[in-house]
Specification:
The complex is a heterodimer of chains A (about 300) and B (about 210). With about 300 residues, chain A is mostly helical. Chain A contains eleven helices and no strands. In chain A, helix 3 (about 55-90) runs antiparallel to helix 10 (about 255-275) and helix 8 runs antiparallel to helix 10. Chain B is about 65% helix and about 0% strand. Chain B has helices spanning about 1-15, 45-70, 75-80, 80-95, 100-105, 105-120, 125-135, 140-150, 155-160, 170-180, 190, 195-205. Chain B starts with a helix and ends with a helix. The model of chain B is unreliable at about 1-20, about 20-30, about 70-120, about 120-150 and about 150-205 (pLDDT under 50). Classes of the chains: A mainly alpha (about 300), B mainly alpha (about 210).
Chain lengths: ~300, ~210
């Protein structure tokens, strides 16, 4: 299966049924969101690369998340370009170049999804070690080890992405892919939940304002809520598409494919704000970068 | 599996008709979906899924806020004696700047660090928490030793470090994960809890 086929076939087949017409979003919306996503994550990457004091393991994981979000947005831009070329007639519908381009672009998408999920888990694990093993943190999580872990993660994601795209019409590949989402969600929930419980017990002992705890609850809900809202619709889409494409209820859900896709794009746009730009150091580095460029 | 066979049939048929622009129908040629005889609303999966998602997130938020408001009060009593002891020893040791020889030796660092951790875990007053914040920098022996190596005046460096120079991962991590203001009034207690003392809250949490 090619995801571009998927994108087009929704428009093609569903037009037979006027009961559940596919929701079509204008291409400009996708393109704008993708470009914003690419620019934001590029800014995060540049800010970390240009500042020596931001080169710690925590920021490496945030960079990994920025890279995977950037890949996801790049996928959308590339797909739009391919579709524009095809509509203009430059590309043959079944040519070998087009099939290869489809495969490459699909692998990019799956790679970005897997990379995003793994980076979020790595960030949660890093924060967990910071809180519960604070003394050993600098010995455990050295920049070199963080780089090695990230390289292993990305190598596994690349291999899995290529495998999933190659065997995408087999059910086990789809199940393996969609099972990653709830697994990572439970993993992240457990880590953050434990951290939150510890923060709560400390806050009570220090007799701090309840406002601070409320902020922690809100932040945690935002982190997990954005992850769930942006990913769950697409994962359900993949499941329904594999198991019940002919069912009318499933078909009506599948008609909302573009809405689900735009949510994934929005995730790439929102992630820098809730992970990278929450850090005051990164914000300062970003401001320094902007103002130094304006007044060289 | 029937979908797979249908797909393979379609691809073999399409390979003979290259002129037809049919590649987009490769996957979905199972047939038009019939919408007759639906018992429930046709968008029921969509509505049910989104409502379930929203309810789940709101439920999670309420659970978290309830956790912030309630909690077992008995946890405080168990550590009150430990608190007093640690606070006294810390105050007596950190009432003045550290001596250079203590600062240079690793042993001095470990001792000051353990006392410091012992102290910060038992802080329950705001003003003492503020003093705790200022001496947080001492936790990172790497930073301290670097500062000492850089200049030949350890006391001055120490005073400089005392000015709220929290190591990167502590300060920004707390800020990035729990918001701009301190989740707790004193940030370090959350982050710098070491293993021996941490066993008490872990035990309480489990």
């Amino acid at each position: 299966k090619h995801l571009i086929d998927l994108y087009e076939s929704v428009n093609g087949t569903m037009s037979n049924n006027s009961d559940c017409p596919p929701v079509v979003l204008p291409e400009e919306v996708f393109f704008t969101i993708s470009v914003i996503g690419v620019l934001e994550n590029l800014i995060v990457l540049l800010a970390v690369i240009k500042n020596k004091n931001l080169q710690s393991p925590m920021y490496f994981f945030i960079c990994s998340l920025a890279i995977s979000d950037m890949l996801g947005s790049l996928y959308k831009i590339l797909e739009n370009i391919l579709i524009i070329f095809r509509n203009m007639g430059y590309l043959e519908p079944r040519g070998s170049f087009e099939s290869t381009a489809d495969d490459v672009v699909d692998s990019l998408f799956i790679l970005s999804l897997l990379g995003s999920i793994c980076s979020l888990s790595a960030i949660a694990a890093d924060r967990y070690i910071t809180i519960f093993h604070a003394l050993q943190y600098q010995r455990l999580v050295t920049p070199r080890r963080a780089a090695v872990v990230l390289m292993i993660i990305w190598a596994c994601c690349t291999g899995s992405g290529i495998t999933i795209v190659t065997f995408s019409h087999h059910v086990p590949a789809v199940i393996a892919f969609t099972a990653l989402f709830p697994l990572m969600l439970v993993f992240i929930l457990c880590l953050y939940g434990h951290m939150f419980l510890l923060a709560r017990s400390h806050a009570r002992r220090v007799s701090t304002l309840p406002r601070a705890n409320m902020k922690g609850a809100i932040t945690l809900t935002v982190l997990l809520g954005v992850f769930i809202f942006c990913w769950a619709p697409f994962v359900l889409h993949i499941l329904l598409m594999t198991f019940c494409p002919a069912d009318p209820y499933c078909a009506c859900y599948l008609a909302l494919f573009q809405v689900n896709a735009v949510l994934i794009m929005c995730n790439a746009v929102i992630d820098p704000f809730i992970y990278a730009f929450r850090s005051p150091e990164l914000r300062d580095a970003f401001k320094k970068m902007i103002f130094c460029n304006r007044y060289p | 599996m029937s979908a797979q066979r249908i797909i393979s049939n379609r691809t073999s048929q399409q390979s003979t008709s290259n002129a037809d622009y049919t590649w987009e129908y490769e996957y979905y040629e199972i047939g038009p979906v019939s919408f007759e005889g639906l018992k429930a609303h046709k968008y029921s999966i969509v509505i049910g899924f989104w409502v379930g998602l929203v309810v789940f997130v709101i439920f999670m938020f309420f659970v978290l806020t309830l956790l912030t408001k309630t909690g077992a009060p008995h946890q405080d009593n168990a550590e009150s004696s430990e608190k007093r002891f640690c606070m006294n020893s810390f105050v007596s040791d950190f009432g003045r700047p550290l001596e250079p020889d203590k600062v240079f030796s690793r042993q001095g660092n470990e001792e000051s660090r353990s006392l410091f951790h012992c102290y910060i875990n038992e802080v329950d007053q705001l003003d003492k928490a503020k003093a705790c914040l200022q001496t947080t920098a001492l936790d990172s022996d790497v930073q301290l030793q670097e500062a000492i190596r850089r200049s030949g005046q350890p006391e001055e460096e120490l005073n400089r470090l005392m000015k709220f120079d929290i190591p990167n991962f502590v300060n920004t991590d707390q800020n990035s994960s729990f918001g701009e203001d301190d989740l707790l009034i004193s940030e370090p207690p959350t982050v710098l809890e070491n293993k021996p003392v941490a066993q008490t809250p872990h035990k309480d949490l489990d």
